């Protein structure tokens, strides 16, 4: 344990000197007495012979105990509640460097290599012409959301084994930024392609996949769009009638050259580092093939698919996929900094269910949280002044923490089930989170106190903003309540965690911090909330990257949003963790945001993207 406080030392010193010790006021005065006339300032008791020997002993004992306390603090990892303040000069220098880093990071995150894998057999001429005619429009659609996007496009062709392959078939068109206008490299090459051949009903898809691997991929975002109307050879990949196999598939046993789909797809994902493989079904004949492709790669979400009865719907979907790919990359990059493409973390064994608590040790922990500010303006003023929010030490508790995380889906942190016991209250089901450690990184730096305090601060500020937003919208019928789980910082031994309420329900990501909007599960309330936080703070900050569950609010059958792990963009880019993209983050949000009826009722300034009629009609 730590050494006793100084006011408890009197008895100890008395026994060591054989008599009554002087009041400790004298020891304090020895340090802070004004200079005597003609004498020196008394800054060290040892250098002044006029002090009594007993006072010397008191001061020596204080110094010894102070030193002992500091050593014990360091040895026990005692939690320091306050973060060191920035000097003005250092803050200015770091801010300049961080803004330049964000600028470069966003520029690189908007690089996109887009390749079309095209079945060039007799039935596919309309699809080939569609790509040629719409590639410029697709580029414009991507640039509308990401004006700084650097786009390169390519196409790769395949037919069937017995079709004559021209030089154009073999090479296609490598990735190029010259794709607009009839004389561009991409358009001239694709204009020479004529759909022909095919023979039986199955095609040589594997050769197309091999050719994709030979493209000169460079950009951080790499999207493959595959358009075809027939599966590859082998009964594993199609449901052709058995009696028709010799007629519909001349190679029912599989690939003529013995190639393996697992190897081909792994080469695309691991070696070429293709971000997403997007497959366009033109009929139902390719459904089984995609099922086998997904089974072979084993990576949820890497292959995405959609069915098109009308090929004219493909360009808009390509634009949406491209925007989504860039948005995810921006979000991931801002979380982990400027690491190389494809950052890998030290793996953990994920066990999704709750553990048997009887087998988990009960540990002592200390919990810390930010104080609650009753006036939002006071909180915003502290942020504007670059002041730290006060951290309060809560009562100690006992906690059981699962040995393994229950999910790997978090970009930056592992979540663990936890059971908390405190002051005879019922056991609380909580979640504690630890940062993932990238390979080659210093573990102490990854788990620094600063990172956990910063994460706690983000969610605390988001909760304050939501509290006032709910008060502001309580009279508007149809607007759902927004709540954030309150995050604390938990120290158990030498380990630090963030701890919060465990949310039950169907998890949905509604937006991220790079302009992505979930249009399938569009939440008008949350889009308006993010917009409102920017105006309410007079452009100081913006709460975004909204994700969580919907639960009954207990108020007349209404539902509410329970959210966690948000991001905050702020003009002070040295605050609110590395997911803070500052002014660039504001621009990314407004590049995709369409104001809705809630924005209008709140009197928010209309965005340049027009008005969305999707979502709640506010009363």
UniProtKB/TrEMBL annotation:
Record's keyword terms, sorted: Kinase, Serine/threonine-protein kinase, Transferase
InterPro entries hit by this protein: a-kinase_dom (IPR004166), Kinase-like_dom_sf (IPR011009), Thr-specific_kinase-like (IPR052969), vWFA_dom_sf (IPR036465)
Pfam families in the record: Alpha_kinase
A single GO molecular function term of this UniProt record: protein serine/threonine kinase activity
Family annotation (PROSITE patterns): ALPHA_KINASE
Keyword Cell cycle part of the UniProt annotation: no
Residues of the Alpha-type protein kinase domain: 381-607
PANTHER family reported for this sequence: ALPHA-PROTEIN KINASE VWKA (PTHR47763)
Protein name: Alpha-type protein kinase domain-containing protein
Source organism (scientific name): Riccia sorocarpa
Lineage: Eukaryota, Viridiplantae, Streptophyta, Embryophyta, Marchantiophyta
């Amino acid at each position: 344990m730590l050494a006793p406080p100084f006011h408890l030392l009197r008895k100890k010193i008395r026994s060591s000197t054989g008599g009554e010790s002087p009041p400790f006021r004298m020891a304090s005065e020895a340090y802070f007495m004004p200079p005597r006339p003609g004498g020196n300032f008394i800054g060290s008791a040892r250098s002044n012979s006029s002090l009594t020997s007993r006072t010397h002993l008191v001061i020596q004992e204080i110094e010894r105990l102070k030193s002992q306390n500091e050593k014990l603090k360091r040895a026990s990892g005692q939690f320091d509640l306050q973060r060191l303040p920035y000097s003005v000069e250092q803050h200015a220098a770091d801010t300049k460097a961080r803004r330049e880093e964000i600028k470069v990071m966003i520029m690189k995150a908007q690089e996109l290599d887009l390749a079309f894998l095209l079945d060039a057999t007799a039935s596919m001429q309309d699809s080939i012409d569609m790509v040629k005619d719409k590639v410029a429009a697709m580029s414009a659609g991507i640039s509308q959301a990401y004006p700084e996007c650097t786009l390169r496009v390519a196409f790769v062709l395949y037919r069937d084994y017995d079709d004559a392959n021209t030089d154009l078939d073999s090479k296609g068109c490598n990735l190029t930024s010259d794709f607009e206008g009839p004389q561009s490299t991409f358009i001239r090459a694709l204009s020479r392609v004529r759909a022909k051949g095919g023979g039986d009903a199955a095609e040589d898809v594997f050769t197309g996949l091999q050719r994709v691997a030979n493209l000169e991929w460079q950009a951080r975002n790499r999207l493959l769009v595959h358009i075809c109307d027939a599966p590859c050879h082998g009964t594993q990949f199609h449901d052709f009638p058995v009696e028709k196999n010799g007629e519909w598939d001349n190679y029912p046993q599989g690939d003529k050259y013995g190639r393996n789909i697992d190897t081909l797809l792994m080469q695309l994902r691991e070696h070429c580092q293709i971000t997403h493989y997007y497959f366009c079904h033109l009929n139902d004949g390719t459904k089984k093939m995609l099922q086998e492709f997904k089974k072979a790669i084993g990576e949820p979400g890497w292959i995405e698919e959609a069915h098109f009865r009308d090929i004219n719907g493909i360009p808009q979907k390509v634009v949406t996929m491209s925007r989504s790919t860039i948005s995810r990359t921006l979000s991931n990059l801002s979380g982990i900094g400027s690491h190389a493409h494809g950052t890998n973390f030290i793996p953990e064994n994920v066990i999704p269910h709750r553990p048997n608590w009887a087998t988990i040790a009960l540990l002592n922990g200390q919990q810390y949280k930010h104080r609650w500010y009753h006036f939002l303006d006071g909180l915003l003023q502290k942020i504007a002044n670059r002041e730290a929010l006060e951290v309060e030490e809560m009562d100690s508790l006992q906690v059981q923490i699962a040995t393994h995380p229950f999910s790997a889906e978090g970009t930056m942190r592992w979540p663990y089930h936890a059971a908390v016991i405190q002051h005879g209250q019922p056991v609380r089901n909580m979640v504690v989170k630890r940062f993932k450690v990238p390979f080659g990184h210093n573990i102490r730096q990854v788990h620094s106190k600063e990172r956990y305090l910063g994460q706690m601060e983000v969610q605390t500020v988001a909760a304050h903003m939501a509290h006032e937003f709910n008060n502001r919208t309580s009279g508007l019928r149809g607007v759902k309540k927004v709540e954030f789980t309150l995050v604390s910082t938990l120290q158990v031994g030498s380990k630090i965690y963030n701890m919060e309420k465990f949310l039950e329900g169907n998890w949905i990501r509604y937006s991220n911090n790079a302009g992505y909007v979930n249009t399938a599960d569009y939440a008008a309330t949350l889009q308006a909330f993010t917009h409102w936080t920017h105006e309410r703070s007079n452009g100081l900050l913006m709460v975004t990257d909204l994700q969580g569950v919907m639960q009954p609010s207990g108020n007349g059958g209404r539902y509410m949003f329970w959210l966690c792990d948000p991001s905050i963009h702020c003009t002070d880019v040295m605050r609110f963790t590395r997911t803070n993209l500052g002014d660039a983050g504001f621009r990314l949000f407004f590049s995709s945001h369409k104001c809705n009826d809630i924005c209008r009722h709140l009197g928010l300034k209309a965005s340049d993207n027009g008005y969305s009629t999707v979502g709640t009609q506010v009363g």
